[in-house]
Task: structure prediction
Amino acid sequence: MRIGIVTPAPPGSIQGNRVTALRWARRLRELGHRVKVVQAYSGEGFDLLLGLHLRHSAEAAWKFRQKYPHRPLLMALTGTDIYGMQLDQEARALLRAAQGLIALQPLALKRLPGWARRKAHVIYQSAPALTRLPPARDRFDACMLSHLRKVKDPLLAARAVRELPAPSRIRILHAGEVREAGMEQMAKEEMSRNPRYRWLGALPSGRARQLLRRSRALILPSLAEGGANAVSEAIGAGVPVLATRIPGNTGLLGRDYAGYFRAGDAYQLGRLLWQLESRPEFLHRLERQIKRLAPQFNPRRERDAWRRVLSEVNPGRLK
Result:
């Protein structure tokens, strides 16, 4: 099949939607399909179109539906789709027009009306198994792989480490590009007065993975997530995660995971970080939990999930 994937993120971007689109393209090519990732739909004769981000891909989806009314249309729901969703008339129409809906973790389905839930599929974002690298000996580094946006609460970790006990060696290394006005200045001001926080700016994916593999933990302080790719990467690398207790995270890590903190609670995050550094048994507990999750995020399982979805939307009956 000829499959088009529409993502609002431009080529070369390190935005999560682009990362997801490129990874899904690889999985679909492994199944023998021809795949093209585009920012907009220009009338190409795709046998199937996958729109990544309900709102931003709506125009492309409607153009494809008008030109090829009998060809499958899939819509992948991101965090802002699911947890910022206002189901107005246009959004409902697009959900109805799609043959299938893709969610990144199972709790996202609870946000959908029943009629939409029946055609929704959960596809966990996979990550390759990565060997951890030796961490810094004189520091206890925890990393953040998230852009500077308010919804990511990007400076919560910096606030969390301000009041750590003096013996603590914890340092926050934050990789991510500026996505909202004023955030760069805030990050620079925080660095100037907080020696435990370093903002590294945007890093290429390879360097970001190296940072993750050398870190003692990944911190995910987001206020809303659809199913963060960074969590999958951390699981693939065996790196413990400290994350907000929100559906987008608990849907990936499970309700009983021990590394949660309340959204917006810098004090609770600071306590978790101190536990991680000062109590080896707590660190090992999180490492064991992460290891048990790894099979769910295997690339082979992601590819098999796509095979099932494509079979269900019945591409063999294209007109």
